[in-house]
């Protein structure tokens, strides 16, 4: 009897071990060429779509890079920024103050998804499309090409409250920026490297006009070069629309290069969150090194972007491959309960065996 009970107990533990092991294999992870066998044309299709949109609108790369950044900082790199409704009923990320009426690129992602669904239905995640498009965006405007690992799953939760709380604001000082990046397990170096994404794109006047007219006691920001300030005051007069836009990098808006850093050294940074990088002891030396060495910037930017691209990866327990990027799949799998069900079945079989 004892022998039969021991055998039954061994069966239970063996079953549980197998189940737990299989669950551990479901943890989110990415790898290069993930779609090599399941959808070999995936990366080419995404790049073709991004290139096509870029041919019609030169500002597309900046929008896609920002979309990627804003996606990864909230719920991880899971395409949650694309959702029009959250599984838990929360107000979505798109409605967050950092995103509303400013984040762009949704049409590019949707176009890529439509093409991919025709070729490989239900295979390529929207989160991977965002990541690949972010990579392709910077390559199209001059960054060296590099491999972007894939295999992400799409999340089901999107919360405005998290977008408001987690995304760094354009008026942040260096301490606030460091804290924001530290929440994502990103370093001070990552902060300076990824800020270089501002070498492309534009910003609305409302995000820096305080530096021009009323930064401290009615005076302009002393970190702003007077000649640059005069230029900005012409572009964003006090009666201008808050949504009027100015280039983030006055030297080369459509080139992915190190001029963002040379601008910072010359006090020609547009946003407060840019300018403060030159007065903080930890960030200032990195800014100056990138201003001197464009190749170093490109390599470090790639390294930090790839690090960011692995934030908060979803597993099969809390992720999926959406059929439409703006909506969770209508019938979700039940991985959350599979472990409990399987263990219960194993115990039932073991008890029956021991009788």
Offer a few descriptive terms.
Peroxidase, domain 2, 50% helix, two-stranded antiparallel ribbon, mainly alpha, 355 residues, 15 helices, 2% strand
Which helices and strands occur, and which strands form pairs?
Elements: H1 2-24, H2 42-56, H3 60-72, H4 106-119, H5 126-140, H6 160-166, H7 174-182, H8 188-195, E1 202-204, H9 209-213, H10 226-235, E2 245-247, H11 259-265, H12 272-275, H13 281-292, H14 294-308, H15 335-354
Antiparallel strand pairs: 1-2
Largest sheet: 2 strands, antiparallel
Write down the overall geometry.
globular
Total beta-strand segments: 2
Q: What is the count of helical runs?
A: 15
Helix content: 40-55%
Give me the CATH superfamily of the domain at 170-314.
Answer: Peroxidase, domain 2
Q: Taking all residues together, what is the mean pLDDT?
A: 89
CATH class of the domain at 170-314: Mainly Alpha
| Portion in strands | under 5%
The ordered H/E elements are HHHHHHHHEHHEHHHHH
Query: Unreliable stretches, pLDDT < 50, 5 or more residues?
Result: 8-13, 15-25, 333-341
**Adjacency order of strands in the biggest sheet:** 1-2
- Find the structural class using helix and strand composition: mainly alpha
Disulfide bonds: 39-120, 72-77, 126-325, 205-236
Catalytic activity: 2 a phenolic donor + H2O2 = 2 a phenolic radical donor + 2 H2O
Binding site for heme b: 198
InterPro entries: Haem_peroxidase, Haem_peroxidase_sf, Peroxidase_pln, Peroxidases_heam-ligand_BS, Secretory_peroxidase
């Amino acid at each position: 009897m004892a022998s039969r009970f021991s055998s039954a107990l061994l069966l239970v533990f063996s079953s549980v071990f197998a189940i737990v092991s299989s669950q551990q294999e479901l943890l989110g992870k990415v790898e290069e060429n993930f779609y090599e066998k399941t959808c070999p044309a995936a990366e080419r299709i995404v790049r073709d779509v991004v290139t096509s949109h870029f041919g019609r609108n030169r500002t597309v790369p900046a929008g896609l890079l920002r979309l990627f950044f804003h996606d990864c900082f909230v719920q991880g790199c899971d395409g949650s920024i694309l959702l029009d409704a959250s599984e838990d009923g929360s107000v979505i990320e798109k409605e967050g103050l950092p995103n509303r009426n400013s984040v762009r690129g949704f049409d590019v992602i949707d176009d890529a998804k439509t093409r991919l669904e025709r070729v490989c239905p239900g295979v390529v995640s929207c989160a991977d499309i965002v990541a690949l498009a972010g990579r392709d965006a910077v390559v199209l405007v001059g960054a060296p090409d590099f491999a972007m690992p894939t295999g992400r799953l799409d999340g089901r939760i999107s919360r405005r409250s998290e977008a408001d709380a987690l995304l760094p604001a354009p008026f942040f000082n260096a301490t606030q920026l460091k804290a924001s990046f530290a929440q994502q397990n990103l370093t001070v170096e990552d902060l300076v490297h990824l800020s270089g994404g501002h070498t492309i794109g534009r910003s609305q006047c409302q995000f820096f006009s305080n530096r021009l007219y009323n930064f401290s006691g009615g005076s302009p920001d002393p970190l702003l070069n007077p000649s640059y300030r005069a230029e900005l005051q012409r572009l964003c007069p006090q009666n201008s629309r808050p949504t009027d836009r100015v280039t983030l990098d006055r030297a080369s808006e459509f080139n992915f290069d190190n001029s963002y850093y040379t601008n910072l050294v010359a006090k020609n940074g547009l946003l407060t969150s840019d300018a403060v990088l030159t007065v903080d002891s930890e960030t200032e030396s990195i800014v100056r090194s990138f201003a001197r060495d464009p190749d170093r910037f490109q390599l470090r930017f790639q390294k930090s972007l790839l690090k960011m691209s692995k934030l908060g990866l979803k597993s099969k327990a809390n992720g999926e491959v959406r059929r439409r990027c703006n909506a969770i799949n209508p019938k979700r799998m039940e991985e959350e309960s599979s472990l409990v069900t399987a263990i219960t079945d194993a115990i039932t079989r073991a008890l029956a065996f021991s009788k």
